[in-house]
Amino acid sequence: MFTIDNVRKTFTNGDVKEEILKGINLSLKEGEITALVGPSGSGKSTLLTIAAGLQSATDGHVIFEGKNITTMSSEQVRNIRAKMFGFVFQSAHLVPFLTVVEQLILMLDVAESKIKKHEQQQEIDNILKLVGLQHRKNAYPSSLSGGEKQRVAIARAIIHKPKVLFADEPTASLDSKKSKEVMSLIRDLTKRLNITTLMVTHDEEMLCYVDHIIKMSDGKVL
Q1: Does pLDDT of 115 surpass 80?
Q2: Distance between CA 47 and CA 20 in Å, rounded?
Q3: Rounded CA gap, 87 and 31, in Å?
Q4: pLDDT tens string 170-218
Q5: What is the rounded distance in angstroms from the CA atom of residue 185 to the CA atom of residue 181?
Q6: Counting C-beta atoms within 10 Å of the first and last residue's C-beta, which end of the chain has fewer, N or C?
Q7: How many CB atoms lie within 10 A of CB 99?
Q8: Which helix (DSSP H) or strand (DSSP E) does residue 87 occupy?
């Protein structure tokens, strides 16, 4: 499904070059969660953003469904991100003037979803039921708790049925109870929808929810 092949990333600051990623190789499977762990500065988030096509690698390849993302045009990569990838970050990043339902409709529009307009409401109801928020569908972000906001973010990330879910510290802003609820939800949806999930986390308590743990240090996989 997803292969990261000898990926390197170098940043240049004046005359100084710093190699953040030093030849990373990973393979990700459908229906499984892979967690990237390691100290700050180890290259976890850089690797995730390169895998997601949010920034380019200095060298190496990212292969998605047999296609080399690293050789595609910016427009082609944006198209894959919109239609095939879902994103959950530390902050929910909800649009403050849109209701929960409207957040999901916006995502369907961005992804150019093939779901017909008259079927979208049923699909939205189904997703909100999966994340336990059908009773909050007309609420605005300002009235939602932190855990509810993150569940809306997860619903928004999967409403268009992506093949890959990228999660960068999805529980970092939540307390222990809500963190476990969110991770349990991500695991359930990964299995139920057969999604390939790549996650960055510092929280070792969340590792019991994942299938594979990849330890990183100083830009390398240990």
Answers
A1: no
A2: 9
A3: 16
A4: 988 888 898 899 899 999 999 999 999 999 998 888 999 999 999 999 9
A5: 6
A6: C
A7: 18
A8: strand 85-88
Q: How many CB atoms lie within 10 A of CB 123?
A: 17
Q: What is the DSSP letter of 1?
A: -
**Which pair of structure tokens corresponds to residue 57?**
């690698």
Q: Choose between 16 and 163: higher pLDDT.
A: 163
Residue 22 has pLDDT above 90, yes or no: yes
Q: Are 35 and 206 in contact (CB under 8 A)?
A: yes
What is the CATH classification number for the domain harbouring 65? 3.40.50.300
Amino acid sitting at position 117: K
- Per the structure, the count of domains in the chain is 1
Which residue range forms the structural domain that includes residue 52? Answer: 2-221
What pLDDT is attached to residue 116? 78
User: What is the C-alpha to C-alpha distance for residues 74 and 168, in angstroms, rounded to an integer?
Assistant: 22
Handedness of CA 199, 202, 207, 209 (dihedral sign): negative
DSSP classification of residue 126: H
What is the band of 58 on the pLDDT scale with cuts at 50, 70, 90? very high
